[in-house]
Specification:
The chain has 270 residues and is of the alpha+beta class. It contains seven helices and seven strands. It has helices at 91-108, 117-125, 133-165, 173-196, 212-218, 229-239, 255-269; strands at 2-3, 9-19, 26-32, 43-49, 55-60, 69-79, 84-85. Strand 1 and strand 2 form a beta hairpin. Helix 1 runs antiparallel to helix 3 (133-165).
């Protein structure tokens, strides 16, 4: 993003995997406004009108048949300075706040992930009498584990909400909640399909919105949305367990220098 003489900003670039961008009236956009500082600096956040001239949204088809994610293109889009969130160059702090809030929401909301998993457990448990005794025993163990985990996720979410109510920022616990919530949701969807068998192709989930088969196809994306499982494990390892961070080849470089180094490395590999 480059600031014009009238104070507005002109944005050119693209972003992929934006959830429900094709339905949104507005979005939040993290832009590079200063390439001559370290990559986590020189970022600025804006509110962007998704119907503004120069904004193009292209839905991406998923294996479930739906298109919840999008690729968004910005071609010389004009954003007024009044739509800036936070100070110029302070976008990374704003982004961290929104990311932690998103992870808290993903780990603590929805009917198939986080504490809402309890409703899914009850829904699947009602079908257990249809199984043979040996399969019932295994399914009960998995359901019990998922129910206990969902309660742990719920109370982790309460801790985060308590911090927010005191004016504090969400911490790395939100990453732990989202990571655990994804695992519980994937396990429950797999168990539900196994318990329901052929019925999973048309039987509605606990919220009645989709079938279990569709849910099983959609949920792997939760391991990517809001921060990949690998990134979340790094956050927990570094900020909670105090483990050393992964080596960074671009440490101490400006963003412009990082791009130049990446380009040189690509040329060497040709």
């Amino acid at each position: 993003a480059v600031q014009a003489e009238d104070g507005s900003w002109r944005v050119t670039g693209q972003k992929v995997w934006t959830t429900l961008a094709h339905l949104a009236d507005y979005g939040i956009l993290l832009t590079r406004t200063d390439p001559d500082v370290a990559k986590h600096r020189g970022l600025t956040m804006f509110v962007v009108d998704m119907r503004a001239p120069g904004v193009t949204v292209r839905p991406l088809r998923q294996m479930s048949g739906g298109a919840d994610f999008n690729e968004v293109f910005f071609d010389d889009v004009v954003i007024p300075d009044s739509e800036r969130l936070g100070d110029v160059g302070d976008g990374w702090r704003v982004a961290l706040t929104t990311l932690m809030s998103e992870r808290l929401s993903l780990g603590g909301g929805g009917s198939e992930i986080g504490p809402g998993a309890a409703a899914v457990v009850r829904h699947v448990a009602a079908r257990l009498p249809d199984l043979s005794p040996d399969r019932q025993a295994l399914a009960r163990q998995r359901l019990g584990r998922a129910y206990v985990d969902s309660l742990a996720i719920r109370y982790t979410g309460y801790r985060q909400l308590s911090k927010i109510s005191k004016g504090e920022l969400p911490g790395p616990e939100a990453s732990a909640g989202k990571l655990a919530g994804t695992r519980v949701a994937l396990d429950l969807a797999d168990l539900a399909v196994r318990v329901l068998g052929d019925d999973a192709a048309y039987a509605a989930t606990a919220d009645g919105v989709r079938t279990w088969q569709d849910l099983q196809a959609v949920l792997p994306g939760m391991a990517i949305a809001g921060g990949t499982d690998e990134v979340l494990r790094n956050i927990i390892g570094e900020r909670v367990l105090g483990l050393p961070p992964e080596p960074r080849a671009d440490k101490g470089m400006t963003f412009r220098e990082s791009l130049a180094a990446a380009g040189a490395s690509a040329e060497e590999r040709r």
